[in-house]
Fold these 4 entries.
Entry 1:
Amino acid sequence: MRALLILLVTAPLLAQEAGPTRTDWPHYGGTQLSWRYSALNQINTGNVKNLAPAWIFQTGDYAENLHSTPIVVNGVMYLITARAQVFALDAASGRMIWQYRYQTPRTGIAGSQSDFIQNRGVAVGNGKVFFGTKDNFLVALDQKTGRESWRVSVDDPRQCGCNITAAPLIVKDKIIIGGNGGDQAHRGYLTAFYTATGRFAWRWYVVPGPGEKGNETWKGDSWRFGGGSPWLTGSFDSDLNLVYWGTGNAAADFYDGDRVVSGADESRDVNLYTASVVALDADTGKLRWYFQEIPNDVWDFDSAYEVLLMDRQVRGQMRKILVHMNKSGLTFVLDRATGEYLGSFNVAEVSNWIKGVSQDGKLTGRYEPELGETRFICPSAAGAKSWNSMTYSPRTGLIYTPTNEICTEITPNNNKPNEGRNYMNGDFPMKLPPNRTTYSHVDAWDPVAGKRAWSIPYKFVLLSSMLATAGDLVFTGDPEGNFFALDARNGNRLWSFQTGAGHRGSVISYSVNGRQYVATTSGFHQTVVGGAMVRLFPDESFRQGSTLVVFALPEGTK
Amino acid sequence: MKCIFILFFVPALALAQDPNVLKQGQDVFNKSCATGYCHGASGVGGGAPRIAARGFDQAYIANTITRGIPNTGMQAFAGTLSQTELNGVVAYVARLNGIVSPASSAAVPAQTASGPVLSAEAARGRQLFSDAVRSFGRCSTCHEVNGIGIPVAAPMGSIPENVAALRALATPRVSTATVSGETMPILMLSNRTQSVLFYDLTATPPVLRTEVPAAIRLREGSDWRHSSVIGSYNDQELSSILEYLRSN
């Protein structure tokens, strides 16, 4: 009985301990629970008005954006640019310690949309700095010197039409990397390599092959080019030894006639394991459970986004849960040990793609693109949220997320696949929804209650990741270049700074010698989603750039 | 014998009759290679090494220009120059190295497959060569042909006559390294005083590794065999692949 009591009391506390970052910012998602929450509180609601730049780093990268999440370990910051220059910087002063330039890779396939010039971050651990490249190499550098240690080709971009833009995830002795390519005729996968040698460990295909369970959910040999690419970064629960990842949309994106078995029940298990959250054994990559959020995704609402792992009271019982949003804005709460559906809520205000979600988590009242027609559907493939991450504060129990209200006019086609070439099968220009004057909002949600605590509107779109801190602050940036702090309790805007270029990246916090810093990337992306937004607001200037701006309280202030 | 004679001599003849190839190569060189911090006019050197009168052979020149040299400023030009420009600049640099009649077609095959119409079997072979379903068990994990695949291995010289010959393929370029007490088959790329660059062939895909010379012990020869990495294909499939390779 006593043992049980201790178990009940300490288990949630232990989980809490693993969630926040402290001195360092060790992983893409802060910690591997992906909260993007810092336990530092030197900068707080009372003094944030004094926050000022401490140092600025211009990467010199001539590319048009800076997306990546910096990593900070023991006072050293590791930063990668869109063109895969990697810098090690003194995190207190910005002094450069080393620099590595990835050789300009060959281009991918023209017209395949596979030539993204962007990189979302490095992973640091086991004495190395890891990153993926546009030409699908996974590269490991020596953490101390920046010298290349190894590199391995994950795929040939000229064949697969795929690229790596995500930060890899280090799990014990392995490094796990996904890729994009879900909009090409390509079959997505996660691949794990050993950090020490670069040798292959395992690969898990999102789309099962012949003889594997789930392959029967694909029509004919459509599984070969079924998409599903897990193009962002997963999470890791060391207690359960499970890796969590969101998978991408089924391909073709907007036309299902060639991939869905006729007469299939659209309420579950269509085109497995696309548009799903999956839990894989961290050592073997074997599938432990899955939850398909969007069976037969015909909207490009892929479920590739970040997976937040938290322990919360659900209906009176402490549960190990995960919170996961896909592009539709529909956000799922699942038991992360079993995949059991616990609830969902929809952050988008303008939404007509479904009528709702049933008690057991199934989509109802689907409004699908139709061959031979043009349909106005909300949200858009740009996402009620884009790939940028939300944040979770255990102090308030709320998640904070940027929500965009953008629609699209989808006109599908039934083109046949050609390996590695575009396989979206539709035109989908972005459209502003009628009768609105603001097109995004920062929201605070209680994920368990499914209730919105507050919402702050913004005129254009919000495409930058968020940070919550124990100072009860929420930080993010907008495309106009404003980097700002909100009160986590009520959304009041407490501080703002113009960084000179639009925000499409990430914000982190860390401390060196007892001084807390908040760092943000600055530099908008004028292609893909960012480009669509530029075209929606042609009178605005969402400026490009590649700069890191680091803030702290002036020394001596309290 | 006659066949080989024609193979090597005809391009050279073609070049002799077409001084435009050299002229174009020189133009490309002046624009792309002589500028900035690179090789200087006539390849006499600048921020980058001298490349005139170095005794380079044409295959080396073609390989370096098309593929570049990893971890240096020497980029791969296969993606940026057209096939005609590549042929020209290879011929021009060959001339700078004293090759009087450089072959005009020594550059590595172009990026896109626009070669002869393939037989049904060769077409099947092409599909098998880079078959994504085989993951890292496909040929293109280590071989680049017609712009598809990772050029771990050098471009293929001769194509094995049949499947038995393919299975028996000797791999004299593979040697053995011991790194941190572990012995492994490797393909050496460069062995310099500062660093050793090699492919670790222990598993597929091969890993391109960089070590300091002090950390690595080398010896000639290896137990590694090409037959150990083609296990995803049966004889019939290998036969189709050979047919494809012969069709190039």
Entry 2:
Amino acid sequence: MTSADTNGRKVAPWLAAYSAMVYAFLYLPILVLVIYSFNGQGIGGFPPRGWTLNWYSILFADAGLWSTVLNSLLVAIAGVGISIGLGLPAALALDRTGFPGKAIFRRIVLLPLILPGIITGLSLLMFFVAAGMKLSLRTIVLGHGTALISVATTEIFAGLQKLDRAQEEASLDLGANHWKTFCRVTLPNLRVSIIAAALLIFTLSMDEIAVSFFLIGRENTLPLEIWSRLRRGITPELNAISTLILLFSIALIVLWYRLRTRTERGSQTAPALTPAGM
Amino acid sequence: MSMYTRAYKAAVAVPPLLWVVVFLLLPYSILFCYSFWSVSPLQVIVHSWNFDNYRELLHNPIYALVLFRSMRIATTVTLLALALGYPLAYCLSFFATKRKDLLYQLVIIPLWVSYLVRGYAWKTILGSDGVLNGFLQYFHLTRHPVEFFLYSPFAVILTLTHIYTPFTFLPIYASLEHIPRNLVEASHDLGASPFKTFWRVVFPLSIPGVLAGATFAFVLTLGDFLAPLLVGGPSGIMISNIVVSLFGAAYNWPLGAAISLCMLLLVVGLLTAVERLEKKLSYS
Amino acid sequence: MTPLLSIRSLIKRFGDREVLRGVSLDVASGEFLTILGESGSGKTTLLRMIAGFEQPDSGEIWMDNERLERLPAYQRPVNTVFQSYALFPHLSVRENVAYGLRAQGAARAEIHARVEQALAMVKMSELARQAPARLSGGQQQRVALARALVNRPKLLLLDEPLSALDANLRRQMQTELKSLQREVGITFLFVTHDQEEAMALSDRIALLRAGGLEQVATPREIYNRPETAYVAQFIGQTNILRAEIGGGVACAGSIAWRCGGSANSDGAPALFSLRPESIRLASAAGTSSPSGDAVRFRARVVTQTFGGASDLLEIVCPDGQALRARVLSGDMLEGEQRFEFDLRDAVAVRATGSGAPFAGALSADKGPAQ
């Protein structure tokens, strides 16, 4: 970062204070959550008293909850598989080729990104009913996979843009066909983008509620399990699981970010997850 | 483009296209069909085509009322999220030197922390026994718990603003980062003060990002049903909650489908309009 | 005569690297002064400090009895033409040019008149409504120029404005730029790494090396009387002869000539700069005594490259010394030939890096103080 970027201009104090306030607003509830997961008196009340790990021990003993964690993991992994398996070719199609209807294709693929989850969820529900499929984890997998293709496409597309096209041309020039070029040149270069996309999709799938809400059968995913318990009443145990989810998410996202920016050494533009970028 | 054979094009475009047709277009079409059907008193869906659902939506005032409230909430949330997100993005993009990366990560971390977790957090803070009330009473600022914090449109707006501020931040930050810094220098060089520079150069060039962020926030808030269920209470119901109950206890799938279709068309219409606007404003 | 701009001992560090090592320079009103240097020499940093985009770590910048470095960029009577033009993409050409005047609150009628005048001056009146993205590089450059000049600054800074243009366009723009400067009479401070450009355009050249000024002089002087080996090699082509001096004779390998100077105190060889075009084929053999002050020597021709009006020869002396000579185009030469040069064309130069950084102050009437 050269001095030219800020020219040594100092930030106006009010702007710095305002920004700090925004950060505080963003993190306040999270901090409260974490702190109160150790609160002896449970949720509410002020100030927190009686430090305890009680809620965590209750949490770890709760077998029902952990089976839903397992469900979520399975769904997330399968969801990653579908999203990337379809998002990768979609990104290639959008980045490299031109064909009639490409603009419409792009819009449709990216639609679930911005459409409220309820619409996608309901539509899929009606689809499964019409197709005679019973609701189960399988339908949730299909729902997540479909909704998250757009995330995979966006991430991998961004990675493709940074690829050196000349490498592929060289490969073709030297006699390798498209498939070999893809395996030996394109894919290795995309490795970081794909892993980053996988991390992101995994996290989103673990947290997904809106679409899953309409597609669950007998087995719950973790967020839906938390949701149904919430309806019954708040317990500090939920603070504990929330804190754990928080830590887990932070780890994944930091990892994701590191991978992402590794492909942009020297660049200062951080990527944004919007269709506007395409 | 001639580098890519038709076989290649087919191989990359067809699988996702096929999937999307089967699992997106087809379901949307079914949604479309359902909206024209109705439900019999025996709770069976009757496939007779009619406009009854749409008539119901137009004539029964409750739908317009809730829709109007939803749009009001969505607008408020969008404006608040922009008011919080833009200055933060500007500060980070133009003034953060050493810890820019870290500060950026700090903004996106809440974004990917479970929606549920954050909604739940607000619930525990805003309740009558919650942290906020405890705090106020502890410092003798109030004597009794304040009721309207929770289970009100206020709570919904607060929660959704919290959720969608990072959403507005991201595209605004990206568009600000894209502005070549030498334009700012050129503006100063020509005699414009930092404020004038912001207003005449930086802000106009960041509008695409603002539009993208605002669209995200507005559309996703409008379709949100979780926050109202968590913290909204009866006065905080939004349009999607009606849809949810129509697919649940109230069991009227066709009517629910009709409302959903309207939302879908609204969203697509909005997106198209914004896209057109962005094209007009694009400068590069 | 007081200079328009007076830079005194500017020092700038980036991290632990000293980019400017105490630069001092005076710029006369109305002159076209070029700051010449390689990349990394600090020339752009120097320019940016005058414009106000960088702050010096120490030193002063004076303009009209005002300490410029204390003013923010938007309050300095200085305008810049950027290397990348930096035209505002969301404004039309006309709006770009009007920007500075509008920002300073000038009256609308005046803005209109001056903008039209500026556009006409750079021949961009017809494209006034265009968006910058649609213009070619040369056209953008003109707009950038008009945008800066319309404000009638006391000093115009140009940061390698022609480097992005192709060769022909570049030459054309050089001519236009020079005549423009004469016409408006504004002081131009021009930064470039292209020494031919510097020679063509400037009233004076300030050669910057590694953050310090090597020499400040008119193009002719800097070409004919370089002060250091670096200057001699940077500007045009030259041969550097390393000579031992003793007993009134300078001896560089197999070439020797009368020289009254004394040897260096540290015993290092004395350096002389000899331009290739100063070396010619020796006049018709016969006379054993050199005519006038011509120094003769033998060398073998290794390559002969056709160059239009002249040929460039690579020649090797018997002692192994390799030189370049530029002779009139003629027959192909082979083998050993006899060459000569005039004594006064061997210019004594200091070794690069010796001595303190040069302070290029203006003296009473003409050039830099020695």
Entry 3:
Amino acid sequence: MTQIPPMSGPYMRKNKSVRRSMLIVMAALTPATAYGFYLFGWPSIILFSITLGSALIFEVICLLLAKRSVSMFALDGSAILTAWLLAISLPPWAPWWIAVVGSAIAIIIGKQVFGGLGQNVFNPAMVARVALLISFPLEMTTYMQPLPLFSDAAPTFMDSVAIVFGMGNFDAVSSASLLGTIKTDLGQGMALGEIMDGRYAPMDWILGNSISSIGEGSALLLIVGGIALIFGRIITWYIPVSTIVALVFIATIFNIIDPGKYPDAMVHVFSGATILAAFFIATDPVTSPMSPKGQIVFGIGLGLLVYIIRTWAAYPEGVSFAILLMNAMTPLIDRYVRPRIFGRTQKGAPLNLSEKS
Amino acid sequence: MLEAILSLTALGIVLGTILGIASRYLKVEGNPLVEEIEQMMPGTQCGQCGYPGCAPAAEGLVKGEAEVTLCPPGGKSLAAALAEKLGVEVDLSKMENKEKALAFVNEDLCIGCTRCFQVCPTDSLLGAPQQLHTVISDICTSCEDCIDVCPTSALSMVPVEKTMQAWHWPMPEKYNKEITL
Amino acid sequence: MEIFNIHGGAKLDGRKSLTADLDIITMPIPDILHIPLQQHIGAPAEAIVNHGDRILKGQLIATSKGLISAPVHSPTSGTVKRIGDFPAPHPSGLPVLTLTLEPDGLDEWAKLPEPLNIETATSQEIADRVSQSGIVGMGGATFPSAVKLNLGQRYKLEMLVINGAECEPYLTCDDRLMQERTEKTVMGIKVMMKALGVPKALVAIESNKPNAFKAMEKECIHDDNISIVHVPARYPMGSEKHLVQALTGKETPAKGMTADLGVVVHNVATAFAVYEAVYHGRPLISRIVTVSGQVIKKPGNYETLIGTPVSSLINMSGGMTDTPKQLLMGGPMMGQPLPNLDVPVIKGSGGVLALNDTEMKDKNVMPCIGCGSCVMVCPVGLLPLDMASRIEHEDVDGADGIGVRDCVSCGSCNYVCPSHIPLVQYFNYAKGRLKEQDIDRRNQDRMKMLAQNRALRDEKTQLALERKRADREAYNAALAKMQTISNTTKENNNTGHNTTNEMDIK
């Protein structure tokens, strides 16, 4: 029984693994994703599959090049989850090469180049989305009205293949997302009341019947998934809650100041990728702070940045940029925001009993 | 365009002049780093590093000729401190293998000649003429100077026994980052 | 009674059902006993018997040395076969001075000290008796209990806390002790209260031990100053400082003791040992050990003689069904791996576990994904992932800066890590390295001081030598000068007699 060297305890572990955590997150995303597939039809399903498949291929190639264990890392679920999040932030009818290029950027540049699992600074899915958005603005801002899967107007499977691979012609009306519309029209001098006339439908946004990507769709299903993650102890509640609260706070303030120019909190929280980001993207363990206090700071920063970028910067949707900016702040937050150690003050000196009541 | 070129050139000239004046009048004489490093060394002048003493060793370190792991009596703590001072990377695992040994007087062979304690830099050798000499193990620095001068080879270096108190868990294995296919 | 929250902590799979309902069985005397002379924190005890001596049960075989130490007594009668190095029940397998005893089967008691009269005994007398009986902290810490009982003299104490938490999975020895030997344990508690001079005692029992709670409560129903309290079954509730926090809401200051808060904590088995020592004069020579794990044929709680080899204990209990994946002494969270089966059971061994693969759930180590689960469970409020990442890159001083020395090595972080990183080993390595560095630095300073003194002395000697030489030269020069003058005067005075002058010069 002598082991050289001895194996250290503890000799008991909870039944947790990286793969299990990733699978649970994917399970939490499934209801919203499935509903999105229903709304946007076959093209979205094909796009999704291409994104995931190419991500996996790129992951295996990178692991082989870096001489890391393929069996341990390729199927740990992280590449697939990254691709999943990327796929649902793309326009549902985007062409196939957007998916492939996006996966390549996400996996190769966003993750493997930094050193693989656990080493990346920025969220890979967001790196890819931002790169695509800046490089291919047309394809990345072309959205459609939902055409439910089994309805007459929806494209058939063969039609969908043609759509995704850029062949043939399918009549579909492309339109801008809600935030995009707001931005353009505000820029043209219209007042918010006019813009929102006929478009202000929070229930639609919550349920998902909106012009958006899948991930920006059903807020309700995403929230249900997010809460399941919190109860399953896969993520903590600090980031989602602080992001949404900060966003609501600043949106409401400006909305009160000038309702004609600044959309209210409902618009900001339920349209766009806010809910997806708050529960699934910002909570990515590798790129968010490690302590509860740090996570709150992160969430507040994220909420404020999302609002600032949406309102005053050139892009209608600020979530991807805000995430990248806050990811860059994470090491700084981790360095200066630490929990208090038992028996010591926040600064680190031993507790002085005479001072404590 | 012209304004930009002129203004940047003027700025460059002004700042360059200030730097030149400062480097002339605020110059630091000599290299204080060498002295500071010498202060950190044990000061026993044992020569185990290959240099004739601690001051030349300090010079070698500053010049970059010597590794920070050169000093056996200094051990890992000195190597780490030197690395921090000089701003270099150090792989401390290399120092793990040096087994610590202390001087030991074989009392059957000692003739009481007094040559050994005259060279011991820390006075850990005790003795008197015609009396048995002995080593106070606690303060022996393993410099081995005494071994060379003993005429009867009564002095030898004996490895220190590992005790439970000194044992600690080794660094755990990391996940296999690199594997060959 | 209000129970406060402790920060973090993990809810573990208890696995106590293997042995929780089994009565304590007294083990027979094994064929050979190996009794280490150091089974406690502090200086090792010194043997006072020799090879070949016949010794009796309970006889003093090694005296304590110094203030923090404990004596050792013989567990049974027999002959001293050997006093020498023997592998210690320690992961290193390094030797410790051990007395090997060959029992003669007669189990004959030595003459024991008289029982103390509790009514009249002073606190010092009680502490002395506890010290003489070799009693140490039986929860595993093995700190000499007499020293802890004497704290009443230096600190203002308000309360004794009896640690019946037993938060480690598998272990049920304290649970069974409280159920089967309730009266004696409570008598021991009262003795401790007297020794410490405290007006009240709290017995803390985790909520997963309802029977022990009921038994103790029934026993103390007429004692207003002993209260039995339920604490949540959250690991590491048995950690002294966290137990005190749960009961009083106060945090023990870093580098301090619970006595700073007016509280002293003792394990419940120690209370029983104190009863034995004070009421019967019996020293600490046996303890209850939980033998458990899927690989053990007949798990249970066994009253074992100190010094029983682990192999004998397992065989006498019924043996193993298979080769275990891991054999360890203590609980699965903080227990130590055994170097081989011949090592003995000692005063602090609460459990001997033989675990298989399924129980350990050991998997490949993955990189850290920064999930922060470890931060959420750390009861000390540290950042295990940050410390581990620094230690991995040999930045042990960096880890020290963020508090690795405050780590109690409870293993909660290790338990919840999804990447199966051996966090506790990183921290134990770091603590070992830091200790080494401290010793190194102290030696460095001493070396430097000695070398400087030596150099100074050499200089002084050199200076003295030179001055001597200079003096001598000056003297010789002066002498020579006077000779020349005298010679010249002699020549000048060739005509006359100037003997007086010559005489003067000499």
Entry 4:
Amino acid sequence: MSSSKTSADPILVIEGLQKSFGGLRAVAGAGLSVRRGSLTALIGPNGAGKTTLFDLVTGFARPDRGTIRFDGRAIAGLPPHRVARLGLVRTFQLTRVFAAMTVLENMMLAPPGQPGESLLGLMAQGGARRRIEAMVRGRAFALLKHFNLEEKSQDYAGTLSGGQRKLLELARALMTSPQMVLLDEPMAGVNRVLGRRLLDYVEELRRSESVTFLFVEHDMDVVMSRADRVIVMAEGTVIAAGSPDLVRNDPRVIDAYLGRTH
Amino acid sequence: MSADFWLGVGVTAGVYGIFVLGLQINVGFTGLLNLGQAGFMGIGAYAMGMLVTNAGWSIWAAMPAAVLIAVAAGLLVGLPSLRLRSDYFAIATIAFAEIVRDTFQNAAFAGGNQGIIGYDQEWRDTASWLLRQLAHIGLGGDTQLPLFIVVWLCFGLCLAGLKFLQASPWGRVLRAIREDEDAAAALGKNVLAYKLQSLAIAAALAAVAGFFLALNVTYLYPSEFDPTFTFLGYAVLVLGGFASYGGVAIGSVLLWSVMEGLRFLHLPLSTGQLGSLRFVLIGLILILLSMLRPQGLLGRKAEMQLR
């Protein structure tokens, strides 16, 4: 293992990131870094630019200025599918499952570069294609079992509850064997029990597969108890970053977000 | 009510069937509102006709070449217009189809108002040979039979090919794009590339439908490719059902049976009135269907309604 792969090294580095929509400066010179293998929380008041930052990192919006480096590569301005293929995948604030496809199909769709996904591959590589399809199916079932969705595998994803959809979206993202996952409010609209289970999965995957997670969350108890690092945004910039304890007592953070009673 | 008449209706239904298979892969499986299908059909048919009459090609060589030309047109149209939001894409495609038709109407190389004739001699020879063979097994006499057989054989082959594609991981990506293209892109799928492939396949199917139309009517004329053809194609699509290739055959046979069968009711109406009445009737059927069975005859309700 080279020195650049140690756990303290940053996997995602953002510098001077700016994005305006008309007259609104959604992200105004944000800079941050996320450590490889960490479970980092991104917090801040509504309108702080968290979701826009996610959009910029994952290619759904083009930055006006600034650099984004993922695993040493400049990725600012790459289209979403190219970013995803580098191993950086996201979930959405409003959960996006493929409603009129089965849960299993949602899962099996995800792995990139399947030979059967191209017309040429369909014509050329019959044997390899079926082998890989069987492998993908096996992995999908294993993950569904892990997330307690196995019995739903043949149901349309559109029939799942809100919480189950969140689980499916996370499981689907993991099917891509990502290096890093961005979770936009993974617990929004999910009951606390299911939400806690979702975070248990996240922690477990971080340990077993050394996946890096960056997640937006508003529940401070969750953030403080689960994250090992917290980044705070307000008005389009990063105003603080550090351990939960450090951030909790930072006067700027208290002023901008947490409030004095905290 | 001769057998040849109904064979003729069957040929028309088969031509529309192949045409609508292309619409189905776009609309039902990719979520692309392609309103320019008649334009691709026109390009395919005219390319074949011109390669035979102007360039002296054999019709059997002209057909695959014309499919490739239609595919190229699909890619050319798709590359800029697929970047538009879906409703604007629909407008761009109908504009494309009208440009194609107006060009045929006014360009000397396409025969203008005269159209193109005389490309089908090789097919007629083949059809006569087929008729003689059919006579050996007691199926002679109906001059439309060879075209009927070839059209529906071709429909069957296209259907099988499309079903294979739909069951593959490739088809899975198409449906994911139909459901949510951002989520598909977030999983590393190149959405534009898949939409282009879907449109190119639709254009190829339109070209094949165009060949059979050209062989059926024996001359090519611009107004054969006006937007009505695409709109009737959508009626077939709605009748047969959303996201069902098999439904296309049923929808097309049903639509054309009603359209052509009405004349046997001996209603006290002029030809013009009868022509209008059949569209009234089709409209009524579509309204009833949308109330009673919105997914169409073979469509999947869940795939239409789940969000």
